[in-house]
Amino acid sequence: MEIFFTANIVYEDIWGDAKKKNKMIKEYEKQLDQLVEFYSERVDLYPVGPILTHNIEAFGKQPVFSRDGYLRFFGAGHEMVMVDIDGKTYPCHRFSPWITGKPAPVGPINFQKEWRPEECNSCKLISICPTCAGFNWEINGDTGIRTRYHCDAFKIEFIASAKLEANRLSNIDKSNLKYLPVEDLRINKDKIYSIYSLIYEGLD
Ligand code: SF4
Questions:
Q1: 152-176: per-residue pLDDT in tens?
Q2: Residue 179 lies in domain
Q3: What is the pLDDT of residue 113?
Q4: What would the pLDDT profile of 175-198 be if each residue is shown by its tens digit?
Q5: Is the C-beta atom of 148 inside 6 A of ligand 1?
Q6: Ligand 1, closest atom to CA 158?
Q7: 12, 146, 156: residue to mutate for ligand 1 pocket, most atoms within 8 A of CB
Q8: Which ligand 1 atom sits nearest the alpha carbon of residue 126?
Q9: Is the minimum distance from the CB of 54 to ligand 1 under 6 angstroms?
Q10: Is residue 105 part of a domain?
Q11: Whose CA is nearest to atom 6 of ligand 1?
């Protein structure tokens, strides 16, 4: 029997002051490294996601627009609806006043053509970095202005995911490559390209 584990960093500001945050991020980095080491040797196991399974081929790529021409990370206000116990509807549970402490937005939400702030819009991880419309609304008053409390943790997760991919790719028996389906070869090629870009260009 295979058991899959998932874990992720919350969007909220759990970090405390700069000194405390620095310490926590360093510890997180250390623990991710241990996991990378473990999963590099155990290629039969699916790594704990999404913290070690970020889509590294997406590095430097532009975010994909929805079919209706807007940028979204999820379906709040579109594919998703939450009905409160009194029958009132919300774009998702994260917009409930009992969570945000303020009224839900009036009118359509989640219709941005670009992400803000500029740090996110020009970031090489923008196509995969997660965001929460409800929390963006709560903190910034706009579903398209991303909160960035998770930024540093997400970046080290991405680097850890790339290290793991690099370790696993370097262990592939090259003589078996000819048996891989074309699509797998393309994905591996894209992964290698992302790893090189990350090494030579960095995240900034
Ligand atoms: S990694 Fe940071 S800067 Fe980049 S999109 Fe995510 S929150 Fe924004």
A1: 999 999 999 999 999 998 887 777 7
A2: 10-60+150-201
A3: 92
A4: 777 777 888 888 888 888 888 888
A5: yes
A6: 1
A7: 146
A8: 5
A9: no
A10: no
A11: 129
Neighbours of 67 (CB within 10 A): 5
Write down the residue that tokens 């790893």 correspond to.
195
Mutate to test the pocket of ligand 1, among 51, 118, 125 (most ligand atoms within 8 A of CB): 125
Nearest residue by C-alpha to atom 1 in ligand 1: 151
Whether residue 160 is contained in a domain is answered as: yes
Assess if residue 95 is contained within a domain: no
Number of structural domains found in the chain: 1
Q: Residue 111's Cα: distance from chain center in Å?
A: 20
**What average pLDDT does this structure show over 137-160?**
96
More confident residue, 115 or 197: 115
- pTM of this prediction? 0.90
Distance between CA atoms of 32 and 40, rounded to whole angstroms?
A: 12
In the chain, % helix, strand, coil (3-state, to 5) comes to 45, 5, 50
What is the structure's pLDDT at 1?
67
Number of Cα atoms under 13 Å in the Cβ half of residue 104: 24
Average pLDDT, the chain: 91
Question: Atom of ligand 1 at shortest distance to CA of 154?
Answer: 1
Residue 49 host element (H or E): strand 49-50
Q: Does a structural domain hold residue 172?
A: yes
Note whether 89 and 109 are within 8 A (CB): no
Give the pLDDT confidence of 47-93 residue by residue, as tens digits: 999 999 999 999 999 998 988 899 988 888 888 899 999 999 999 99
User: Which structure tokens are listed for 80?
Assistant: 């998703």
